[in-house]
Write the structure tokens for this entry.
Amino acid sequence: MTDKIFLASPHMSDEGYEMSYIQEAFKTNWIAPLGPNVNEFEKEFALRVGSKYAAAVNTGTAAIHLALRAVGVGEGDVVFCPSLTFSASANPIIYEKAIPVFIDSDYETWNMCPKALERAFEKYPNVKAVILVHLYGLSADMDKLMEICRRYGVTVIEDAAESLGTLYKGRQTGTFGEYGVFSFNGNKIITTSGGGMLVSENEEKIKKVRFWSTQSRDEARHYQHSELGFNYRMSNISAGIGRGQLKVLDQRIAKKKYIFEFYKRELAKFPGIDFMPINQWNQPNYWLSCITLSAAVKPFEIMDALEKENIESRPIWKPMHKQPFFEEYDYIGEDVSEKLFESGVCLPSDTKMTETDLERVCKIVKGLWK
Ligand SMILES: *Cc1c(COP(=O)(O)O)cnc(C)c1O
């Protein structure tokens, strides 16, 4: 069997930056809890994305959860969320017994459709928060979406879990909303083996999030709690990996772009293959290279053919309003997210792929057009 090609797998730096931070942590016995890597990672990360403050937590999901709490979302509150996303965008709404309303995407961005958002506001004027997502490293159309949210005076949480380093009109995604969320899960563009970050310009809220994420321990010698706590903080070891990974983020983005352009060069000429939309205002991180098919060849045929050759690929996210767990919640839109799900494939986009690997993938895909 030939070597497996992954969709997106952890890729540590050639220079060994991550290991040197970990070794430092071992030497000083800053294994747990917290420690200097956590503080430095927060500072370096905030600087990198151009946000004032950052709180490092153990998953992106935890960051979304604490963002919702920072906004004050509670039982019975309505929260808008794109339907086309990973379930982690929506699950924390349920943790807080709030009510998700799912909004459709548009073909121009694959992200939240401003027209559908407008309609949703007409139906639910008393929304507590809007979660915007930048899928696959493509940015949502922030000018339009933020204008609508501002007009209704609603707080925006940006789920930038997949879009670290993506720019919209020159500005980092994750810095438009009151809160920005990032993930360092193993398949993301950089990883800490598992982790997340919440960024904001609001220092008080970020301090609060750090407090909540360490069990809400009041300042006292004994264990004193006046608020509900969570065990969500990032460890000093994970943060060390993150500091090292941050140094190679630009390299990773460059490679992801190379992968996307390689596929485009090789495959775009085949009838019925369309590539994910790169708008002129968008500088994506190209986290995953995705295509949609309007050809006789179906997505499952591509995925099957690749799987036979030990190559991983994946469908586009299945919309939340089509998930058994979320079916009971309202959905505003047409059927764009469903169409994208039904016709889409995420091609392997692992930054460790060689040119030979990319050729192997393209050859298999092209073979289906004969
Ligand atoms: C990965 C991801 C998350 C969750 O991040 P974790 O670190 O895995 O908890 C949230 N939203 C989106 C869109 C994601 O892709």
In short: The chain has two domains: 17-246, 249-366. The chain has twelve helices and 15 strands. The first helix runs from residue 17 to 27.
